[in-house]
Task: inverse folding
């Protein structure tokens, strides 16, 4: 089962989503970015993966608590 990855949308929201290279059903892949729905603002946004060590403990907790759907 794939693990969740922390991403940041173009509006600065952090959330967790399933990120499988070369595969996506709920997003449009554009290189290392994806256009997908942000569960925080509920709009289609560009998202990028974020390294956990770049986040504060509060941002990390918020991102782990806000999970996207289980589809990759």
Result:
């Amino acid at each position: 089962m794939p693990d969740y990855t922390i991403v940041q949308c173009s509006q600065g929201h952090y959330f967790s989503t399933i990120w499988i290279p070369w595969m996506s059903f709920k997003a449009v892949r554009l290189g290392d970015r994806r256009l997908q729905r942000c569960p925080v603002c509920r709009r289609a946004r560009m998202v990028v993966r974020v390294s956990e060590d770049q986040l504060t403990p509060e941002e990390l907790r918020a991102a782990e608590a806000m999970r996207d759907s289980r589809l990759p």
About this structure: The beta strands are 4-9, 14-18, 28-30, 33-37, 44-49. The chain has one domain: 4-65.
